[in-house]
Each structure stands twice: as structure tokens, then as C-alpha cells.
Amino acid sequence: MKKILFQPFENYSEKKLVLIGILVTLLGSFIAYLFQARFDGVLDVHFVENLELHHLFLDNSINIISLSLLLFISGKIVNKKTRLIDVFNASLIARLPYYLISFANINGYMGSLSQRLLNFTTEKPELLPIEGTDLIIILIFAFLSLILLIYYLYLLYKGYQVATNAKGALPIILFIVAILFAEGISKYIIYLIH
Amino acid sequence: MAQLPIKCPSCQNTLEVSELSCANCETKISGNYALPALMQLSIEDQEFILEFVLTGGSLKKMAIKLGKSYPTVRNKLDDIIEQLNSK
């Protein structure tokens, strides 16, 4: 179990990782469609309305491709032997747990809560549109999202480390730069397309 | 069989061979002989090199045999090459 959760890139062949990664990404995109969660950027997730299934597949494809390409460029700087398939697998597999965030929007609850908060103005603070229970749920959601984000980045770095044989500080800096660029590029492309 | 020590337990310097003996006739040879580079690797790394040679130098076959991914095996080999280059 430890191997699957924390060291998948060390112990499983690239074919197995690609197959599982693609199947679970398709499933994750479908779940996101059911709960109207949109992954509109490498690190983003937003709950929106009127999503169509192809939006989800397109968004996730853009995220995975941007992340793979940027990590591949950064990986080549670290180690010339870095292969695209290994960073692609890292990008694919690391995102899998992140898709679980979609479940927070069962019955559109989290989406409507976010919308109510966004509509709130400070001019009338007594009209704060959330109750105590909502606040607790938001805090739990924020905590779980943070855990999933950390786990996503942990898996991504582990995959990058195996793909590039990363050692020392330089690969960590390049890894962070690659993610930030991938986030910007993916968001921009998704914005252009939709 | 006992593991061949390669580092001095007192100062951590690399050990040298100072005596060899024949198990058959008990002839002993004394002198100062440096350990070959491969012998200075850890037992795990030596076994890895042995497996690598036995699989005909195929990292893909090694990965299947060891139940590891291809880049993990390639990284291990690269680390050993780095160690050997630094000797």
C-alpha cells in the first residue's frame, strides 16, 4: 500500500502508470462533470454551473500537457536523460487524488455557498449569508483541499525526482518555476478556448 | 560468508588489502594492494552491477527483474557510475 500511495513512480512500469493514469483521469473528469467542478488550471478547481463533459476532458488534457511539457523542459536542464513519458506519468498520476475535490460539490452545495460569499458586500456585514454549520463545512473543505493539494504536489515532485534523478536545490527551484509557468500557461489556454 | 569491510571503522578511510592467503595450502602473501574500484562499492551496488551484466546490460530487463520502474533502475546505475568516477 505504501508503494502505491507514496512511491508509485519507483515501483511501477511506465505502461502500467499510463494506463491507470488515463483511466482514472477519464473517471475523475466524469465525476467532476457530475458535481460541476472545473479544473481550470494546473492548480485550480472551481465549482461552476452549466458545464459540459467535453469541457472537463479538454481542461484536464490542457493541464496535463502543460505540466508535462514544462516539467520536461525543466527535467532536461537537470538531467539530459529525462524522458517525456516519465514526466507525463508524474503529471498524470499526481493529479488523480486531486479529482476527489469534486465530491465537495454534492448537490451543488459548495458552489452555491461560494457564490453567496462572493455576492456578499461589507456594507451590510449583518447579512453574512452563511450559518455556523456552513462555516464548519467550509473549514473542513479548506483543510481537506489543502491536504489533497499537498499530496498532489508531493506525488508530482516524487515523479519528477524519479524522472530526473534530482538531487540538491537546483531541481527543486526548477520544479517550482515549471509549475508556476504551467499554471499560467494552462489558465491562459483554457481562458482562450472557452 | 562475511561481508568484506571496505572502510576503516576508526577513521572511515578506504581499506587496502595487506594479506592474502590460500585456503588449500595456507600460503600467505603480505603486501599493500589497493581494492579494485568495484570492490569499493557497497554490497548492494556490487550485486546491482552483477545483475546488470547478467541481463546483458539491459535496463529494461533489470527493471522487470527487480520489480522497479525503468527510470529508478537507470538512476541507480547513474549513481554507481558517479561513485566509480569519483574513485
Q: What order do the helices and strands come in, and which of them pair?
A:
The complex is a heterodimer of chains A (194) and B (87).
Chain A: H1 2-6, H2 8-11, H3 14-34, E1 37-38, E2 46-47, H4 53-78, H5 84-94, H6 109-119, H7 132-164, H8 169-193
Helix pairs in contact in A: 3-4, 3-5, 4-5, 4-8, 5-7
Chain B: E1 16-21, E2 28-34, H1 43-54, H2 59-66, H3 70-85
Helix pairs in contact in B: 2-3
Task: Describe this entry's structure for a reader.
The complex is a heterodimer of chains A (194) and B (87). With 194 residues, chain A is an all-alpha fold. Chain A has one domain. Chain A has eight helices and two strands. A two-stranded antiparallel sheet of chain A has the order 1-2. In chain A, α4 packs across α5. The longest helix of chain A is centred in the C-terminal third of the chain and has 33 residues. The model of chain A has no long low-confidence stretch (mean pLDDT 91). Chain B has 87 residues and is α+β, with helices and mostly antiparallel strands. Chain B has a domain of 48 residues. Chain B is 41% helix and 15% strand. Chain B has a two-stranded antiparallel sheet. In chain B, a hairpin with a 6-residue loop joins β1 and β2. In chain B, α2 packs across α3. The longest helix of chain B has 16 residues.
